[in-house]
Amino acid sequence: MLSPKSAELVEATLPAVGAAIGEISELFYTRMFDEHPILLRHLFNRGNQANGTQAQALAGSVAVFASGLLEGKQPDAMLRRIAHKHVSVGVTSGQYAVVHKHLMGAIAEVLDVTPEIAAAWSEVYWLMADTLIGLERFLPRGQEDHRVIARFQETDDVVTFVVRPVNGPVPPTKPGQYVSVHVPLPGGIRQIRQYSLSGRTDDALQFSVKRDGEVSNHLHDHAPVGSTVRLSRPAGDVTLQPGDGPVLLASAGIGCTPMIAMLADLAATGSQRKVIAVHGDRDQFSHPFRAELGQLVAKLEDGQAHVFYEEPVGQWPAERTGFVDLSSVPVPAGTTAYLCGPVPFLRAVRAQLLEAGVTDIHYEVFGPDVVVSAG
């Protein structure tokens, strides 16, 4: 909890900080990368820095955390997601002090705050940082080399890589988790990206990569069978939970990768649960795992699939043309929903589920964490 004096100051200045948080975030990253350029070269996603999404994510998480403190609660789901991503890319507890220095410096420069206000926001930061450090302490860390033993072209721009550890067994995984892939790029640069696990066997993992950016392009073009890739331990808290109630797996585009892993697990274990798989894509040819979706649903005792295409090729039902629309999909009470896809999709489907009375909703965001409930 914030101290009473800090709570008073944070509440009074939250509107001003919120209004300027975009400028603060941009300045923060500029200051930090000027002093520590290796962080941009080897840790932070250069694409997300260029398009501003990382700054937006930082802005949203700090504002949400501060607001939660004033209301006497913490955004636990957001903090868990951030902790898992930090561990998967190798963020260390010592780096929080670096972030603190430059974030507080940016706030002071943009808003010209008093020392008392700066101290209050410093308290907010360290409460958030200490919470994340505590969560990260208990998550598995480390990276290991894996050999590419097979690769499959799912669509024109999606490749599935099947990899096996060079040394030791395949690490434990849960359906819905992801791995961070560490890729060396020209100029001595190393970049890290997360890719959801789309399946596993006793001795191999598989992850699927859509060609979109410098790391995915590198993997498509320079990771043939027999090559070696460096992977983090599996991470991610949006995983299929045990139970008997209905399950909704909703995805769009490459967001189908964690959903297909969950669906495969349900089919492999002979689940008796009602399972509703929903997917949206541009057309049949851009839909990864299209055949597997039908095959896995057919193995379930009570499974159904609903697929929406924006621009279907050939004959396609009119009620399944366009964006995903759950008004035409019966979703029973007590359903647990798992979502993955672009943020507009997540927000739209979440709103549809809430309107239908579904509140047990879990979502995975590709890229920097954002507040899906906004907008």
From TrEMBL:
It is an enzyme of class 1 (oxidoreductase). Residues 1-137 form the Globin domain. The keyword Iron applies. One of its GO terms (molecular function) is nitric oxide dioxygenase NAD(P)H activity. It catalyses: 2 nitric oxide + NADH + 2 O2 = 2 nitrate + NAD(+) + H(+); 2 nitric oxide + NADPH + 2 O2 = 2 nitrate + NADP(+) + H(+). It comes from the Bacteria. CDD domains: flavohem_like_fad_nad_binding. Keywords: Dioxygenase, Heme, Iron, Metal-binding, NAD, Oxidoreductase, Oxygen transport, Transport. Its EC number is 1.14.12.17. Gene3D superfamilies: Globins (1.10.490.10), Nucleotide-binding domain of ferredoxin-NADP reductase (FNR) module (3.40.50.80), Translation factors (2.40.30.10). In the C-terminal section; belongs to the flavoprotein pyridine nucleotide cytochrome reductase family. This is nitric oxide dioxygenase. It comes from Lentzea jiangxiensis.
